[in-house]
Amino acid sequence: MKKYLVYLIIFPWIIAFQSCDLNDDNDFSYSFEALEIVDAEFPDSFELGQIYRINVHMNKPGDCHYFEGFDFYRTGETATERTVYAIGSVLNRSDCLSLEGETIIAYFNFEVLFTGTYVFKLYTGTNENGEKEFLIYEVPVITPP
């Protein structure tokens, strides 16, 4: 009886581990990189406590690039300055095609929590000296009448 019990315990484990293949032969890999933002649609002013949809236009460098989301950093001396990066995933494949002039449009929702003027610095790429460049939008917060 004990012999059958051992087989009942060990046999399922042998079957389970034989069906697991830890070898990854499909070479599917990707990386993340910042996409270059070319334009954004901000309102002329914000109202305290409101939420706004901000449309962002960015370059799609190739057909292996996919938009993943935005990365926000609170920067500067005040609570109202934000640096924004558009993050894309890139498939590491050799058959990717370059796309000239194709853009992606995505959006983020922004809630106005502070008074003053919000400053948004949107990443547009690097210049010939390797320095980061940004589009800068300033949006004042108004008090409703």
TrEMBL record:
**Superkingdom of origin:** Bacteria
Q: What is this protein called?
A: Uncharacterized protein
